[in-house]
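Continued from yesterday's entry.
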Amino acid sequence: MPEAAKAIDIRDLVKRYRGLPNVGRSLKGAVIGRLTRRYAAHEAPGALRGVSLTVAPGEAVAVVGPNGSGKTTLLGVMSGVLVPTSGEVQTRGRICVLLEAAVAFHPDLTGRENVILQGMILGMRRQEVLSQLDDIVAFAQAEAYLEQAVRTLSLGQRARLGFSVAAHLSPDIFLIDEVLAVVDEEFHQACYQRLRELREQGCAVMFVSHVMDQVRAVCERAILLDEGRIIADGATDEVIRQYELMAAEHRLHH
């Protein structure tokens, strides 16, 4: 694939954990600390071991695999939240990331304030974010709770708002990790349609989910991670078949 045709280019990526960082009390520090504690608790000490892949603009790639295989770590490194131990990660354009339901939302700010904050973190002007506010709120069906503190919202409400913010702020790369697990089927369909529209505009999507019907609905390509390595990369149905065979074999031996 020519360099200009790559939205994401990862070469020989290694990520190991050597203890939790002292990240301070800023919003960014809170996000990094929360994510790193999650990874350290759920991933193997050598979370990624020589991962290489490329993703083209407009392509949607699922990342599947058992718990602890490195899926969330991979998206964390792509987003810049985690620093790789070695290897290269190159991304092109604006990255929007949902590593879990509204993980970057400030709990004491309202939904409206968080929408503006997220846009400005992505480098947008306040007025640019406000011009998208009505569409963001309508997509999330958030009119009734937009002025409430985010900490008072349900997981589903936060996931709706988080997805809508990311999907309406002109991403070039959209990283999604398990967020759709806490919303209803009607919202799933709206999300799938929005992702198709983004892909038509050239947005690359990386999608982590344990729900294979969601994986099939979003992605034509999938990669299978196991113990921090890519063991399959190809058409979604074929990779899912390999994953299900691997999971069945694991259950048989345990």
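--- second protein ---
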Amino acid sequence: MAILLPRSMEHADAAALDKDRESELTPRQIVFELDKYIIGQNAAKKAVAVALRNRYRRRRVPAALTDEITPKNILMIGPTGVGKTEISRRLAKLTSSPFLKIEASKFTEVGYVGRDVESIVRDLVRMAVDMVRGEKTIEIQDKAATSVEEKILDLLVPPPKRRENAPPEEEFQQLYETREKFRKQLRDGLLEDRIVEIEVKDRPTGPMEIFSNSGMEEIGMQIQEIMPGFMGKTKKRKVKVHEAREHLLEEEQKRLIDMDAVSRLAIERVEHSGIVFLDELDKIAGRETGHGPEVSREGVQRDLLPIVEGTTVHTRYGLVKTDHVLFIGAGAFNVAKPSDLIPELQGRFPIRVELQSLAKGDFIRILTEPQNALLKQYAALMATEGITVEFTADAIEEIAQIAEDVNREAEDIGARRLYTILEKVMEEIAFQAPDLKTKRIPIDRAYVQDQLKDVLKNQDLRKFIL
């Protein structure tokens, strides 16, 4: 691998953070990984693959250009259920990037009741903190488990200590041997129901619940710093060993993990690897005409603009820059058009890809090819009951044909139609599974038609159920 060009310390830290995740992922490999879970939509896959690779490329250009190169945000256009969200989510998983999916229609113009757009960044940072904390927890789990074991042993039998009036050597040795016997019993799971006394802190009640539930964490943190006792008092409580272990492990993890370092790393990851999926962008498309709901829609667009362009947002973990967060917008755009967005916002989504509606052939592939294919999921569920479910080729073809027909005649919800059809097909088997004596159940075209016959005959019922 080539030596990285010099850059600022901030960019060097970010590069070190993600080099293992992104450096080996070429656009072709990214598409290959996405193909394992998403059928078709090659144009969208290529667009996100290039966008991801460009992040890696940006960190390797001369330092003078690094900050000048901004992400090329993507606008995905297509009906629901064709893979827009899944492509974005899988892309984030490939590189362990913080990922947030949010509906643009949930936001309201500043001055109206509703969520403010800066909550996008706060939510993304919160997810990144949880992600990094989870990684750090794995790193220190052995050390934490060893410490917790010693603390539980301290509760069960006092540790032998040398003091001024120390016991004779034999007594000291006896205490040590007793402790080691308890250690072996503890590791063998023989003391799980033994009662011990530990100190626990009451969970915050009253006003603190209001702060937590309303998303005003910053205020809650400030109150905690000023009035520590307000967050709950410490008291002794008798619990079983297995309960004590859970509590002590949580406390030990908090002690061993440097949350300041976690916050810094989370912010770096958001700033350089964060991905925001803005769904239902078409529902806020509209220009100001002086009256009606279009005024509010344009207001939301203008509120979103600084976040997408690049701004600094204050969060409880610190200041976060959004200049290099990748935004992926999406919408059906059946009524509105991308050109109905305000020009400034249009310019921030220079890459546009159109995703195609799914046909019978796509449904067959979706049912069988991906690693998480629906038929594999249902087979695995029934296997837990000792039942082998086998779908014949003509059954799969029938399910795919019905999905295509219903999508065409009713609302086109893409691959989500398969869920409703399969649930109806598998309903009777799933209900009777624990009591079935037959452990092998073949599902053919005739069985599918029989399970759906009443629904398919009734056009109104078909729209309602399928």
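The longest strand covers residues 195-201. Residues 399 and 421 are 7 Å apart (CA to CA). Will compare against the first tomorrow.
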